[in-house]
Amino acid sequence: MRLIDTTTGELKYFIGSNIPHYAILPYLGRGRGNIQDYLGGQHENVQGFEKIAQTCRVTRERSIQYVWVDTCCIDKTSSAELSEAINSMYRWYERAAECYAFLSELPADADMELELIASPELEFYDGSWNMIGTKSGLSRQISATTLIDEDLLKGIVDLSEYCVATEMSWAANRQTTRIEDRAYSLLGLFDVNMPLSYGEEGKSFWRLQEETMRST
């Protein structure tokens, strides 16, 4: 797992149980930065650098040394690394110390079921780093929009209390850039691991359902 050092801005790689505490910025914005810019040391040239810098500042102030940003911490030119990252995504959110989301950066079609369900807490900010609220504090409004159970958002009940059909219903209208990612992004939610096969389109969701039923 690659993480950005909030003090130096450099990328560092961790494996196994050696992964330190980290925060997550789940959505930087389309076309804003990639791992090649970071590996080349061109931090300041990345679109959205100011957002990353401010995220690092806030994370440091909370005594967390590392932050994960999907656009800059995954080498999407490597199919093997992309597959590993997608299969690990739920676990990464689940283990994050904090998770931030900028409402001004989210597109109208953004779906955040994974972040809402997996992260222990999710904080919402405006573009000036003013906190709007948290997923637990805004649970009633979020539940009304996403249909995710309010008690789950508040952390009152565990995900294991819900059946597969209910969990599937939460993601029924999920929209993704690539059709296959609609299924791949849910692997961690159902605790299954399966190889990615871009080009299979709608078949990916059927494979997900088969793997889910096989593991239950």
Automatic annotation (TrEMBL):
Pfam family, one: HET
Name assigned to this protein: HET-domain-containing protein
Domain Heterokaryon incompatibility: 50-113
Superkingdom of origin organism: Eukaryota
InterPro entries associated with the record: HET
Species in which this protein is naturally found: Plenodomus tracheiphilus IPT5
